[in-house]
């Protein structure tokens, strides 16, 4: 059920996430341009019903080819999410790590003083290398016969709609993702080393300004039946929807033309640029009726392998070996680990090095100093959250852990309320707690970290952390993310698991009960006072049958928390190389 929720969330992100080309705003901008084109062509005779027929003809949207597009999108998203996206995401940090080490080893020159204009050059270099690598991977797919067998899946579309974008074989997506990851990582390494300063790309929800403008400029019409040219001048510099539609044509004069994404300069350099004449005929699909062979999702997946094996078994073997090599290299190199994942145990130079080598995220753990009955030490939450935060950072990869915030809202001081009624509990006002969280996160962002996670182990701090997340979000630059991992505490499945194991709700308890007592026994056995814990009646300040706690239960409870946090993190991470 949880896997289904993750998949549904991932699918919805294709329409709600700004980093995706089918983001609803981009679709609406294309719709607006299509409507404008219809009115311009119809003149005074335009009508709403006519516009609907012009933009949404059944012959296109309900065509068998379109139905394959829709089904392929659903299935391929599942495959990419579970198998290939995690692999591709490791290429960039792995290359950055290896590149920075190599730059230092070979003695690549660098400037000690930062160059004021370097950030501008970095921006354009990053945008250009991304666009070139997308073009180059596309060029390879057309020019290398073996790769063309897989790229045929995309060109087999007999009509075009925005979802045709996602009709791409995983081999295509991996090739593009790896090349883009390598290219952008090399640019980052060169600028970071040569100019001796960290760089980050100014983005809007994960998109740079140039790409954002391009997607708003009718991008989704390129996979449609509606022809939009940018005009004779702009078409020489930008790839218009009409030029890409011509790229899909199986007319011989149109073969292997207009392979760029944004800029036409690459096509011009490689002599593949083609500006169609007005009303030049475009015939979609593959020559000799081959498109009919790709009439199902299964065929789109498996047929390229059969065709590739017939044409070049050696190349197919090389592809498999290359894939395994990239996988093992990415995972091996990507596991750089500094002396510790805890900021307080690192020097500032070690933090700087870790960040330069791909550690771009930090977890801010919040615990609490509060009573836990007669059997649990006051620092229970601090010890547990330190353990789980480190485990989450290790499994997620490229993530550091800030010092545990040991003081959280626990109740009023005068009069004493909540846990403050028990000796030793320490509290801070909610607004103070929020300000500390806010300044901690902003400090991390100022040092160049991209993502900060708030992770809390106490129910009393959840609401305050939600407010802090909202306040911090309002102050972030584009490309920075603050995420409250509230599912770690609120939706970890612990209670349901124990119910399934036969424990009654009153035995499970809540504060200092079966769950957190077991967790502390697993993390720090000395934190549980054995004589008090063995009493089979509840003591003041605790609930549940905590005398039934044991380390084995604790390990399971900890694992459920860790898994809940990692699943929430996975929902926030997107990838769009399609």
UniProtKB/TrEMBL annotation:
Belongs to the creatininase superfamily. One of its GO terms (molecular function) is iron ion binding. It comes from the Bacteria. SUPFAM superfamilies: Creatininase. The keyword Membrane applies. Residues 124-272 form the Fatty acid hydroxylase domain. Its cofactor is Zn(2+). Keywords: Hydrolase, Membrane, Metal-binding, Transmembrane, Transmembrane helix, Zinc. The chain crosses the membrane at residues 20-39, 70-89, 119-141, 173-195, 201-221, 314-337. This is Fatty acid hydroxylase domain-containing protein. InterPro entries: Creatininase-like_sf, Creatininase/forma_Hydrolase, Fatty_acid_hydroxylase. It comes from Litorimonas cladophorae. One of its GO terms (biological process) is riboflavin biosynthetic process. The keyword NAD does not apply.
């Amino acid at each position: 059920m949880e896997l289904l929720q993750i998949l549904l969330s991932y699918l919805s992100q294709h329409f709600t996430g700004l980093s995706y080309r089918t983001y609803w705003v981009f679709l609406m901008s294309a719709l607006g341009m299509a409507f404008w084109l219809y009115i311009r062509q119809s003149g005074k005779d335009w009508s709403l019903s006519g516009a609907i027929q012009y933009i949404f003809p059944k012959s296109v949207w309900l065509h068998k080819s379109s139905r394959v597009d829709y089904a392929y999108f659903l299935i391929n998203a599942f495959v990419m999410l579970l198998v290939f996206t995690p692999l591709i995401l490791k290429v960039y940090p792995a290359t950055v790590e290896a590149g920075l080490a190599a730059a230092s080893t070979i003695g690549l020159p660098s400037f000690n003083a930062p160059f004021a204009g370097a950030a501008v050059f970095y921006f354009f270099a990053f945008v250009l290398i991304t666009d070139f690598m997308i073009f180059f991977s596309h060029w390879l797919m057309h020019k290398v016969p073996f790769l063309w067998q897989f790229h045929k899946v995309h060109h087999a579309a007999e009509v075009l709609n925005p979802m045709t974008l996602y009709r791409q074989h995983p081999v295509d997506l991996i090739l593009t993702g790896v090349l883009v990851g390598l290219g952008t990582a090399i640019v980052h390494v060169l600028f970071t080393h040569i100019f001796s300063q960290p760089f980050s790309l100014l983005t809007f929800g994960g998109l740079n300004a140039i790409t954002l403008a391009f997607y708003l400029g009718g991008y989704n019409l390129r996979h449609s039946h509606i022809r939009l040219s940018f005009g004779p001048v702009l078409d020489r510099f930008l790839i218009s929807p009409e030029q890409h539609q011509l790229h899909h044509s199986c007319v011989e004069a149109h073969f292997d033309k207009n392979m760029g994404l944004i800029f036409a300069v690459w096509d011009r350099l490689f002599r593949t640029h083609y500006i169609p004449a007005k009303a030049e005929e475009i015939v979609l699909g593959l020559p000799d009726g081959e498109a009919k062979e790709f009439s199902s999702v299964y065929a789109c997946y498996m047929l390229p392998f059969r065709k590739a094996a017939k044409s070049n078994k050696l190349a197919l073997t090389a592809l498999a070996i290359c894939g395994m090599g990239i996988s093992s290299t990415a995972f091996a190199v990507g596991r750089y680990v500094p002396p510790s994942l805890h900021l307080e145990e690192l020097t500032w130079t070690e933090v700087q090095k870790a960040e330069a080598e791909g550690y771009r995220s930090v977890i801010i753990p919040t615990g609490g100093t509060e009573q836990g009955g007669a059997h649990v030490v006051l620092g229970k939450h601090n010890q547990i959250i330190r353990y789980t935060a480190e485990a989450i950072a290790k499994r997620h990869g490229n993530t550091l852990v800030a010092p545990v915030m040991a003081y959280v809202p626990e109740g009023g001081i005068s009069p004493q309320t909540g846990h403050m009624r028990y000796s030793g509990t320490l509290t801070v006002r909610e607004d103070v707690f929020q300000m500390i969280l806010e300044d901690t996160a902003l400090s991390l962002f100022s040092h160049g970290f991209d993502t900060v996670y708030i992770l809390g182990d106490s129910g009393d701090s959840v609401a305050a952390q939600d407010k802090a997340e909202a306040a911090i979000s309002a102050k972030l630059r584009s490309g920075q993310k603050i995420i409250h991992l509230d599912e770690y505490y609120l939706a970890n499945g612990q209670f349901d698991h124990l119910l399934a194991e036969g424990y009654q709700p009153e035995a499970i308890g809540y504060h200092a009960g079966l769950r957190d007592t077991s967790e502390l026994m697993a993390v720090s056995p000395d934190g549980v006072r054995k004589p008090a814990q063995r009493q089979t009646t509840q003591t003041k300040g605790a609930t549940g049958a905590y005398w039934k706690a044991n380390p084995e239960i604790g390990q399971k409870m900890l694992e459920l928390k860790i898994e809940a946090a990692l699943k929430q993190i996975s929902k926030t991470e997107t990838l769009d190389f399609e």
